[in-house]
Amino acid sequence: MLAKVLSAALVGIDGVLVEVEVDISNGLPSFTIVGLPDQAVQESRERIRSAIKNSEFSFPTKRITVNLAPADIKKEGPSFDLPIGIGILMASEGIDLKLKDPFLLVGELSLDGSIRPVNGIISMTILAKNSHIDTIFVPYENSSEAALIPGINVYGVKNLTELVGFLNGEKILSLASPARAIRINEVKGDFSEVKGQEQAKRALEIAAAGFHNVIMIGPPGSGKTMLAQRLPEILPLLTEEEALEVTKIYSSAGLLPKGGGIIEERPFRSPHHSISLAGMVGGTTNPRPGEISLAHNGVLFLDEFTEFRRDVLEALRQPMEDGTLIISRAHGSVRFPARFMLVASMNPCPCGYLGDTKKACTCTPYQLERYYSKISGPILDRIDIQIEVPRLETETLIKGSSSENSVSIKKRIEAAREFQASRFKDGIRANGLMKPSDIKKYCRLKPPLQSLLREIVDKFKLSARSYDKLLKVARTIADLAASEEIREEDILEATQYRILDRKYWEKKFS
Amino acid sequence: MKNKRELGSLGERRALEYLKSLGYDILVLNFYSRRGEIDIIAQDKGVISFIEVKTRTNKKFGIPEESITPKKRERIIRTALYYLHARGWSRVSCRFDVLTVNIDPKTGDTEFNLTKDAFQLEGDSYRYVG
């Protein structure tokens, strides 16, 4: 007897429909799986055999051949256990199927017949919905995650017996309800805890309001890391669409906590500088999302920016422009979303005290040259806002200035985001994500400001990209002040965030 | 008991009676081929059963089931394939059983332990056209 069941494989972060065909015929008893299965899928034979026996069904003493079609995609992981098991029971007439509509099945079997959670459930549910399949059976622990997708019947199943009972029309399962929001970021503290550094705080506020990339340069202990770690507290929540994108990535990477949930806060990733290229952009033979994809719609914080491997930093260039990353491997290419806000921090020199008011720098010109050459021009050019985070004055350090808390900063940022959203009609999410054509459309300047800008471009020898970035930042500053027009002070403030690279990267060694 | 062969054939005689009492139709005894040997080939409710008989008088050397090594299993499978081929049977339902016979050397009492479907073919290492 032949039975066919639908399931899904995960390629990158997207689901691909897989048809599980089970043929049972007479002959020497054997159990073979074909269709590019990996080791975990091969091992599923033993799990399925035990699960079926321990669920009080009989495992057929026949020749069993399982085919996973299409046969050209690599199938990995244990999520085919359940469809293969159900397929065997259907082919050996252990199931008298009452459900007439097509359905999709995913799940790992445990030896006792219970069903364990698997990765990438959201992507598979989206796939089912797009393929016009009305019903999906998922592991019980994943069910609330799958139920985030509206317009499809999601059933969470705890064990094989329960599912067979339902398919036979003997048992009733209830539909799963959508997951609640979960937190992924650790709360590090409030902005008011950072003493002084008002200029840096202002710059971060602008960055958060417009989704701009930032680099902070300053001596050790000035508060760069503290400032960056408090960013999640002032970032606006994800929109519904963005939340689904982020949750999908985390689901396929297996990073959602047990029981699932929807991620509503912007991710904040701070990988250590020893990270490999594959860890940063995603990779290995079966591509998995890297840090830049895990930071999608959120912040990628690179502390000690100069310590990262050169190839790792250079690999950021293309995703920083496109917001996506395509990884090509021998058996096809995979697209990962990677629209992140880069926040980098570094010391001004290897010893850390270049330009410090209290302590002398002990670095040689050669050391400085080497240090700055670690950050290439193209990378620096892609960073919209450059700020200095200087040593704190003794007075501020001891007295501490009463400063704003995260909640009130966040309010201003949210207002600025709404102001942007009312302007953009074509799906642009923030100023930092505008394309050159959008800049022409949304950042029109009055003639006197145009000549001011011409002067600035000439004086600081800005590249075309720097010019665009300057306009974007100026737009955000105007948005924070709820101004329809870009004003002179907006351009001047934006300019001061654009010229630090001249100070450090050019002046030093000429 | 004098020697191993004698013990083995005694065990097989007892096994034969036992299987008949369970309703097995005995087809062949001690089927030899170049690839190996199968002690008993029988038919149980329409299923061809290849039975390996293990006889023991004590458990000093481990339980009888343990002595079916992967190599022994492979010989049985290859012989079974040869048997099916020789009879021209392709689409039949088959099974591998292991029957252990424990004979008490003093009293001559016999104890049987039949494991149905004791093992199966692993993967596709044996090409079988059927």
Question: Under CATH, the topology of the largest domain in chain A is which?
Answer: Rossmann fold
How many distinct helices of chain B? 2
Tell me, what is the CATH class of the largest domain in chain A? Answer: Alpha Beta
Number of strands of chain B: 6
How many β-strand runs of chain A?
20
Morphology call of chain B: globular
The CATH level-2 architecture of the largest domain in chain A is identified as 3-Layer(aba) Sandwich
The CATH superfamily of the largest domain in chain A bears the name: P-loop containing nucleotide triphosphate hydrolases
- Beginning-to-end CA distance, first to last residue of chain B: 44 Å
Instruction: Give the helix tally of chain A.
Output: 22
Radius of gyration of chain A: 28 Å
What structural category arises from helix and sheet content of chain B? alpha+beta
Mean pLDDT of chain A: 89
Sheet/helix structural class of chain A: alpha/beta
Helix content of chain B: 25-40%
Distance between the termini of chain A: 80 Å
Biggest interface, and residues per chain? A-B, 13 and 21 residues
Sheet having the most strands of chain A: 5 strands, parallel
Overall morphology of chain A: elongated
